[in-house]
Design brief:
ABC transporter involved in vitamin B12 uptake, BtuC, 13 helices, Iron complex transport system permease protein, transmembrane transporter activity, transport, ABC_BtuC-like, membrane
Length: 333
Amino acid sequence: MRQSEKVFITLIISLICILLCIAGSLALGSRSVSPGELIDALFLGKAGTFGQIVVRERIPRTVFSLIAGAALGISGALMQAITRNPIADPSVLGVNTGASLFVVMGIAFLNIQTAGQYIVLALLGAAITAVFVYGIGSLGAGGATPIKLALAGSATSAALSSFVSAIMLPRSNVMDNFRFWQVGSVSGANWTNIRAVLPLLIIGFLISILLAPVLNAMALGDEMASVLGVHTGIARAIGALAGVVLCGAITAVAGPIGFVGLMVPHVMRLLLGPDQRIIMPMSAVGGALILTAADIAGRILGNPGELESGVVTAFLGAPVLIIIAVKSKGSSL
């Protein structure tokens, strides 16, 4: 089968699954909705019955699940490409936890309340943590190997999580505002939050698409990429910035949802090969599918309450991380 056919088939199957997940996200939950009420609420503009009202209230959550999953998928693909590390991911590298720490500090000490303030602090925390982890992982012989980066990220994440707990525990108001961040959830999404993060996500997505040919060259090695005219330092900085913007913006709204950025690009590489021009957009599609499906699974498994989507993605992603780490044996992409 030709590459173009594989990409087309994978895209069509993914889009069909996304459509099914959208219907499931709008219809399933503590109060299930009939197909008739779903159609009336979506296409006829009706909101008279309780079920139709439920559907209209679930729309922002569903939209955010899609864009958040897409952003995390692209962020993971960028981080894996610029570090040539198959286990690079916002959660594995501690970037999500860094964003969380800065937001909880803002809540506790600066009394932040608006979505814009959350996003600024989350981006700042994510950027500082990314630089710190990469710097620590680059020390010693061999530079930034996959195992060293994973260990540096895990240690940093554990330390930052302790700081988060130390700030929250004595302050009940901070704990109430921040509780959903501890596991990551899309349940608090609304149109205000979506409008706040959407411009950043669009910028990050465009950068990732434009950077894809450069990342293909860098996969050949820095020396070969330099011969081809690529400024590897600048390319890495731009790619890292885009990845931090994508995961930081989502973390500001949903908390640290892990493993989406790890699983999706890895699966897409196995299915479609290493071409970043394909991996980037397909990681967006796959990320949207995975996170929306995880949100639905959390509602079904936790019924009559719900299991947070971050718990579901961690349950799925932890075995994937172990498999990748064993198979990579410390090698680069």
